[in-house]
Design a protein that fits this description.
Rossmann fold, two-stranded parallel ribbon, 138 residues, globular, alpha/beta
Length: 138
Amino acid sequence: SKNAVSLRFEKNVKKMKGKSLMRMFEGGGLCRPQGLIVLPTRELAIQVYEVAQKLFEPFEKIVGILFGGSGLRRQATSLSMGVDALVTTPGRALDVIKNATAWCTLDLAPACSYVVLDEADRLLSMGFQEEVTELLSL
């Protein structure tokens, strides 16, 4: 059975298809978010993703999510349609950046103007300093 996040994710993908189909063809699977929200755990990433979707919806902005412990292909495929903001854990973001797939290439350099380090103290206490530093240097 599908959980609530999975159902919302599918709903978001269906909603994006009409508006983002051109993005997908123009970008060829290239994901260039304008904003990046980095969190230490997948549970926090899911919570922030759900809230961000609700907050961004009136502005027709698309939010994507990446986190470890779940299927990369499905997450990366949704990003290939283009997102305005990306909620992610540091390790998964670096994994997608370093290992571009046929489904998606994540590129932060040209478009990402905003980075939010949510729970920054936990990111450091959980040992993500190197990953966060690497993400910020891209």
